[in-house]
Design brief:
Layout lengths: L12 E5 L18 H9 L6 E4 L1 H6 L2 H8 L2 E4 L14 H14 L3 E5 L2 E4 L2 E7 L5 H18 L2 E5 L15 H11 L3 E5 H11 L3 H6 L6 E6 L6 H10 L4 E4 L9 H14 L14 H7 L4 E4 L4 E4 L3 E6 L4 E6 L3 H6 L4 E2 H5 L10 H13 L3 E3 L23 H9 L11 H14 L14 E3 L16 H7 L2 E4 L7 H12 L3 E4 L5 E4 L11 E7 L8 E6 L4 E6 L7 H4 L11 E7 L1 H7 L5 H22 L3 E5 L4 H8 L8 E8 L4 E3 L1
Parallel strand pairs: 1-2, 1-10, 2-3, 3-4, 4-7, 7-8, 8-9, 9-10
Antiparallel strand pairs: 5-6, 11-15, 11-16, 12-13, 13-14, 17-23, 18-27, 19-20, 21-22, 21-24, 22-23, 24-26, 25-26
Helix pairs in contact: 5-6, 11-14, 17-21, 18-21
Length: 664
């Protein structure tokens, strides 16, 4: 195993170990019941300490720690991941939260215990280490490596207290077990002196002998609640180990103890005074980074997008919210890294050095390197893949176009929104220059078939079931009977799903339509086309549903059963349905009001609302129904005569007689 590089851990100094307050009658809480420790740090900063150390779980119960972590240097220390639980995966959501906290606090390392707490069916709510079996060691090592890789943060492992002894069950000594786990995971070591003293007492060890058996050559951090008691041990450890931080338990809410605290911290720092990493020593200048990467193979990050104009180009990576603009003269340098290259080779390109643009070229390369646009290449891989930190965007590996849309329309914490009154004033002004697109689409020249008045339907037409009954009875049907859909059922389906229950004239010269489903911006941008195959009193064919007239406008008299299965992604059973309904979106309605891409999300949402309403109405009518998005859009566009940029196809709902075969 390679020599452990302690220099990767920066000097941290002396820190405060944060504990959540215990709410007893004797607690000195503020009038609002707030934690006085957090209150003081937020108001005054850390008194004499160099950093504060807290656990991810603390942020759940005291959210202001996130604010604190952005103001003062912070170390993260977890005790909830149960690294040694054999056969039980670490909590994925807690891992994600820990990663986010590492990014937010920029903690130089992350600490976790060599222990387990979770077991099948429960959690001890406290870390223990009952067995030193090889299987436990292998589990701790594997989880520690996964934790470090996922958070992209250095890891230190802490000894847990031994509260009971199982001499006959142990395969190795406590110190050997801890040392081997720390070494195999290539981690640093965090020594909790209180835990070490408890373990030595439980196992009958000599304390000094036990300490010498631990991986002190990797000792990065020390925890102590009694520094005066442990002074000689601290002195020895500072002399013999690469200690970077010592974390104390202290109640800073009592300002009367500040003088004593200052004396103690000064004495600890005198053991080995060094500059602290948050004073600027850990961050290397861009030139040093550039020199270090001179012989490393680099390549453009795969998630990078380029947009090239006449005078400049943009480098964008929406996964990282990155957008950089450069002059086109730098394109040859950028093109150089389309394949793995070293920075050194880039410097040898004609005109990069020994030219008036030398400083600009070097600044461009530094910017690419510091922003992570250039990623190191894994030379051990046959594919030469770039080494990128594990990123949630990997979930979208096959959804690159969807990811681009999602990230392009994602809003930020400070995205500006206009007030409703201001928006209405703007729309009225816009309508005076360009009329609002109609809420109706009509085919007035096509043959028209009026549908039965749904409001005159007999009371028994729709089953007298409750909404909850319909919700619970809804199923997806895959097989239908030969029984035709009645004209009345067709009318009820269309009206109570896509029909207008109320029409109100608006101030823009058009109408607001109210339907049984909500619609973004009251625009009702969804249109529906009925593909009838087995409906009583109607010829087979393609129809458009007229919301204005509550009727069907004939687009084509044909037998859709010939092609409907192919149009629905090779689902042959769809031709057995009595009717299917194709939902589209009239883009102009939404685009007139909302001049930003996020509005497409609303159009998709509208179609989803209507689809659910359709399922509930069909269920209440005693019909089998389904929804599918496995479509060949172009086939529907051609059959219905649609321009895909003006009216895209979103989904299909279908209905038929009976519920012979259903799935949830």
């Amino acid at each position: 195993m390679a020599m452990f590089d302690v220099s990767q851990f920066p000097e941290a100094g002396v820190g405060l170990e944060y504990h959540l307050p215990r709410h007893t009658p004797q607690d000195e809480l503020s009038e609002e019941g707030l934690d006085p420790t957090v209150e003081r740090i937020l108001a005054e900063g850390l008194p004499h300490f160099d950093y504060v150390e807290f656990q991810p779980t603390h942020c759940i119960l005291e959210p202001r720690l996130l604010e604190l972590g952005a103001q003062v240097p912070s170390l993260l220390h977890s005790s909830s991941l149960s690294l040694g639980s054999v056969g039980i995966a670490m909590d994925r959501e807690f891992l994600k939260m820990t990663r986010r906290l590492c990014e937010k606090t920029r903690s130089p390392w992350l600490a976790e215990h060599i222990s387990w707490s979770r077991f099948h069916g429960g959690d001890t709510q406290h870390f223990i280490l009952p067995t030193l079996a090889q299987e436990v060691a292998d589990t701790v090592v594997a989880n520690a490596i996964e934790l470090r890789d996922l958070t992209a943060t250095l890891l230190v492992l802490e000894n847990a207290p031994r509260l009971f002894s199982l001499h006959d069950a142990q395969e190795q000594s406590e110190g050997a077990f801890i040392s081997r786990v720390v070494e195999r995971s290539d981690s640093g070591f965090l020594l909790d002196l209180d835990s070490a003293i408890a373990t030595a007492r439980t196992l009958g060890y000599d304390l000094n002998s036990y300490l010498r058996s631990l991986p002190l050559d990797r000792l990065i951090e020390i925890h102590t609640g009694h520094p005066q008691r442990d002074w000689e041990i601290l002195r020895h450890l500072f002399d013999s180990s690469p200690v970077k931080a010592i974390t104390l338990e202290w109640d800073i809410s009592r300002k009367t103890d500040d003088a004593e605290l200052l004396t103690l911290i000064t004495a600890i720092k005198s053991l080995r005074p060094k500059a602290l990493f948050w004073q600027g020593c850990a961050r290397q200048a861009p030139q040093t980074q550039l020199e270090q990467g001179a012989q490393t193979l680099l390549k453009l990050r795969e998630s990078t997008w380029l947009s090239i104009g006449s005078a400049s180009f943009f480098i964008r990576d929406r996964q990282c919210d990155l957008s950089l603009e450069f002059g086109v003269m730098f394109l040859p340098l950028l093109r150089h890294f389309l394949t793995p290259q070293t920075l050194g080779s880039a410097l040898l390109l004609p005109g990069v050095l020994q030219s008036p643009e030398q400083d600009d070229n070097l600044a461009f390369l530094r910017e690419l390197f510091s922003q992570g646009v250039l990623q190191p290449v894994d030379t051990s891989s046959d594919t030469g893949a770039s080494i990128e930190r594990s990123h949630p965007a990997s979930l979208w590996a096959h959804w690159d176009a969807a990811l681009e849309f999602y990230l392009s329309t994602r809003t930020g914490s400070h995205t500006p929104y206009i007030s409703v009154s201001d928006l209405e004033a703007q729309l009225e002004q816009k309508a005076s220059a360009r009329r609002q697109p109609s809420a109706f689409k009509d085919y007035f020249s096509h043959p028209f078939v009026a549908l039965e008045n749904p409001l005159l339907a007999p009371s028994g037409a729709i089953a007298q079931s409750t909404l909850l009954d319909s919700l619970c009875e809804r199923r997806t049907s895959r097989t239908f009977s030969d029984q035709p859909l009645s004209a009345q059922q067709l009318s009820l389906l269309l009206y109570y799903t896509w029909g207008a229950t109320v029409m109100e004239q608006n101030r823009m010269g058009d109408y607001f339509l109210k339907k049984t489903s909500p619609a973004g911006g009251s625009l009702q941008g969804t249109e529906v086309y009925a593909v009838l195959m087995n409906v009583q009193g109607f010829e087979r064919g393609l129809y458009h549903y007229s919301v204005r007239r509550h009727g069907l406008e004939l687009l084509s008299r044909e037998d859709p059963r010939v092609w409907i299965g192919d149009a629905c992604g090779e689902q042959p059973w769809i031709k057995d349905a009595a009717a299917v309904f194709v939902s589209t979106a009239r883009v102009e309605r939404m685009a007139w009001k909302y001049e930003f891409s996020r509005a497409l999300r609303v159009a998709l949402m509208d179609a989803g609302h209507l689809s659910q309403t359709f399922s509930l109405v069909a269920t209440a009518l005693g019909l089998g129904c389904f929804t599918t998005a496995a479509l060949r859009d172009e086939l529907f566009e051609n059959r219905l005569g649609l321009n895909y940029l003006e009216e895209p196809v979103f989904l299909v709902n279908g209905v038929g007689g009976g519920r012979l075969s259903v799935k949830p």
